[in-house]
Design goal:
alpha/beta; nine-stranded mixed beta sheet; six-stranded mixed beta sheet; 11 helices; about 35% helix
């Protein structure tokens, strides 16, 4: 029986370990804090988004980002403008932000998100655990007419891809959310999206995994010829037949020990959960101008947003958090900054410059599979990533093309 060492225990690592275990492999998960519930996967917006088929690198994003940089409370910022790696990342991002890149990547992202949604359905029914899963779609809410018009153009692309989409005016939005006070101009309603509460799902997944756990910090990969021989950890090594690199933004540090260049920057985001008894939400939303995801969960309504680009750093930017609270309050007047003033979650999304995951084998080590770089779609793409990694390790043809996701593409 092959022994597979999975590095990382976020949604990507756990999904990979689950699929590999189901396929009969002996699996060991290596995670520096296996009992933690504070990582990026636990605090995210819990959205499963076939609607999000446009990669982060898209036309207009450079101009949009530069405009937001002038405002320290805006949804986008850079942690350190003197960080050379971030500057190089942004230069590569600019090369990808074009219509041809979107045309190549959009069908892949849509297919992956739809496949992931189906795996979620199966796994949740199988577990019998209430994780708040519902397929109620997603509202892309705009507070301005200009913002609404921009979303309508995206809706037309979604319809061409076969997704269920509906254009809604102000009154139609209010009729869908009669118990929620909102100030919006309109919305695009994507019917194929779903949502869940991440914590209970991840906890159930961890408890039911038939794997071994090692609590340690990964420090490098020992090679023997063209194959990885062992994972170096703080207290020795863990030998394996196959290795899966799924440690989020920290994957690039381990990859460097192999001479593999993964151009990952951390996309720092924030979130908080609030509850007002008479403000009940039915359908998850994204505030398009504020770039905030709003999701009804088992413990309240969760708000997640902002993107601060740079090296891994969990230091909270109070200006950014206050700006996020103010933007939420403008769209949902009952959710004042004071109501939103509870504990703040901070997470680091692993972002590649072309907006696509790094997924597949690398020529640097024939028995290493890379699975990282999912940015804001880690939760959405977790199950399908696990399925694809299982197919790769089993030497099967991947059920979805990996051409746009090669880990060697930025070497």
């Amino acid at each position: 029986m092959k022994h597979v060492v999975v590095i990382g225990a976020g949604i990507i690592g756990l999904s990979c370990a689950d699929e590999l275990s189901r396929r009969g492999f002996r699996v060991t998960i290596v995670e520096r804090s296996p009992q933690s519930s504070e990582g990026c996967s636990f605090g995210n917006g819990g959205l499963i988004v076939p609607s999000h088929f446009v990669p982060l690198a898209a036309p207009g994003m450079i101009r949009y980002g530069l405009r937001l940089l002038r405002d320290p409370s805006s949804p986008f910022g850079v942690m350190r403008l003197t960080d050379l790696e971030t500057i190089a990342w942004m230069a590569r991002f600019a090369r990808y932000a074009n219509a041809d890149h979107v045309r190549r990547c959009a069908p892949v992202l849509c297919e992956m998100n739809l496949a992931s949604r189906e795996i979620y359905r199966e796994r949740i029914v199988e577990s019998g655990v209430d994780v708040g899963y519902q397929q109620k779609g997603l509202l892309m809410l705009s507070q301005t007419e200009a913002g609404h018009e921009g979303e309508i153009h995206l809706a037309e692309d979604a319809q061409r891809m076969g997704l269920g989409v509906e254009i809604l005016g102000r009154e139609a939005v209010k009729s869908l959310e009669p118990e929620l006070e909102m100030d919006v101009a309109g919305a695009v309603y994507f019917h194929d999206d779903a949502h869940l509460t991440p914590g209970p799902y991840l906890q159930s997944l961890k408890e039911n995994l038939k794997v071994s756990w090692v609590e340690a910090e990964a420090q490098g990969i020992a090679m023997e010829g063209t194959r990885a021989k062992a994972l170096k950890i703080t207290v020795g090594e863990i030998a394996g037949d196959e290795f899966v690199l799924a440690s989020g933004v920290w994957s690039s540090l381990l990859a460097r020990t192999l001479g593999l260049k993964l151009m990952l920057r951390a996309g720092r985001g924030y979130g908080f959960t609030a509850h007002i008894p008479d403000q009940r939400m039915q359908i998850p939303s994204i505030l398009t101008e504020a770039r905030v995801a709003v999701t009804p969960m088992l413990d309240g309504i969760r708000f997640v947003g902002t993107m601060e680009l740079g090296a891994p750093d969990l230091t909270q930017n109070l200006n950014r958090i206050q700006g996020m609270r103010s933007n939420i309050s403008r769209a949902y007047p009952r959710f004042t900054p004071e109501v939103l003033g509870g504990p703040v979650w901070c997470g680091l999304r692993p972002c590649s410059p072309d907006g696509m995951p790094y997924l597949g084998r690398t020529r640097r080590a024939s028995n290493l599979v890379v699975a990282t770089g999912h940015a804001m779609m880690g939760m959405s793409l977790g199950p399908v990533t696990g399925k694809l990694v299982g197919e790769i390790v089993s030497d099967e043809k991947p059920s979805i093309s990996l051409e746009t996701m090669s880990p060697d593409r930025h070497a």
